[in-house]
Write a structure and sequence with these properties.
It is a single chain. The chain is of the alpha/beta class and about 325 residues long. It folds into two domains: about 180 residues, Rossmann fold, CATH 3.40.50; about 110 residues. Helix content is about 55%, strand content about 10%. The protein contains 14 helices and five strands. Strands 2-3-4-1-5 form a five-stranded parallel beta sheet, with helices on both faces. Helix 9 packs across helix 12. The N and C termini lie far apart (about 60 Å).
């Protein structure tokens, strides 16, 4: 039997020091905050849409933090906010409106609802409980992340809460955050009464090059030191913008991988260095998918698209260097 040698030795393993999470305030985030606050008195819903990594969740987290930091219990107009990620509630599961309201209550109250009370209560009674709790907590803005996972009836449950709040003259704004599945479910042809409750539609567009440069400078000292008027520095900004397609979520992921290599080799950083950091992940991802195919497994279409997109970028860069 193998017995571990307990002789005292100095380990070469080093735990990584966590990088402090940085949320960079952008013009788009300020715009979305202004738009949510503008419709707040209407007591309705707002829809946030954009690609994965476009900054929707980060903006919601940022705005929630700002609202709660500014909250003053002595100010009658002051209120709190909460952000939560909803779980899947599929059509046909039954009691979908109640399921969505239960999830909303957990976010507002910070507690799970008593199962006995939940089972014997109607959706309307659960909505009343949510509003009562929100009033007690002085909470008036709720961000529902991944709202596209909800069925139409589940979204209808959130609309019921909103309608009840309006009847009671309690300002409650629910922000539905999602990707392609969300606009499809909010289509006026599917459920007009839900569509009419949406007071603003906010689209998170991809960053342009200038916005990407500003984000990179805020995220890492290397990029903060670059001068975009210098050709070699501008090429580095342009490269990250192209591989990320202007998606801030991808840029943040790239910076984490870049920083690990930067700490090892902080000198002579150029586009070749950046390309090496990027392609190591791309090649491993492609090899993983290829091996999965060989083993007889199908690959998700979204994953295929990501691989093809990165491959096209690689080919473009290769051609430009010839």
């Amino acid at each position: 039997m193998y017995q571990q040698n307990k002789t005292s030795t100095s380990s070469t393993f080093r735990f990584p020091i966590p990088r402090k999470k940085v949320i960079v305030e952008t013009e788009l985030m300020r715009e979305m905050e202004s738009r949510v606050l503008a419709i707040h008195e209407l007591c309705g819903l707002c829809a946030w849409y954009g690609s994965s990594g476009a900054g929707k969740s980060t903006s919601a987290e940022w705005m929630t933090g700002r609202i709660n930091e500014a909250f003053d219990s002595n100010d009658e107009y002051s209120f709190k906010a909460v952000k939560y990620e909803v779980g899947k509630i599929k059509a046909g599961w039954g009691n979908e409106a109640k399921r969505a309201i239960r999830s909303l209550y957990s976010a507002v109250a910070g507690l799970t609802i008593d199962e006995g009370f939940y089972g014997r209560s109607t959706a309307e009674e659960l909505a009343d409980l949510v509003i009562y709790t929100a009033q007690k907590e002085q909470l008036q803005v709720v961000f529902v992340d991944e709202a596209g996972l909800l069925s139409l009836d589940a979204i209808g449950g959130l609309v019921l809460v909103s309608d009840k709040a309006k009847q009671l003259e309690f300002n409650l704004t629910i922000v539905l955050i999602g990707m392609d599945d969300l606009p499809q479910k909010l289509d006026p042809k599917r459920r007009p009464q839900i569509y009419r409750r949406i007071h603003d539609w906010c689209y998170f567009r991809h960053y342009d090059l200038e916005q990407t440069i500003a984000l990179l400078k805020a995220l890492h000292p290397h990029f903060a030191s670059l001068d975009k008027t210098q050709r070699s520095d501008w090429e580095q900004f342009k490269f990250v913008h192209e591989i990320s397609n202007g998606l801030p979520g991808f840029i943040v992921q790239f910076i984490s991988r870049f920083d690990a290599q930067f700490k090892v080799s902080p000198e002579n950083i150029d586009t070749t260095f950046l390309r090496a950091v990027h392609l190591r992940t791309v090649y491993d991802m492609q090899d993983m998918f290829e091996q999965s195919r060989k083993n007889g497994h199908s690959i998700n279409v979204a994953s295929e698209a990501k691989v093809n997109n990165n491959e096209s970028i690689k080919k473009k860069k290769t051609a430009n260097t010839k």
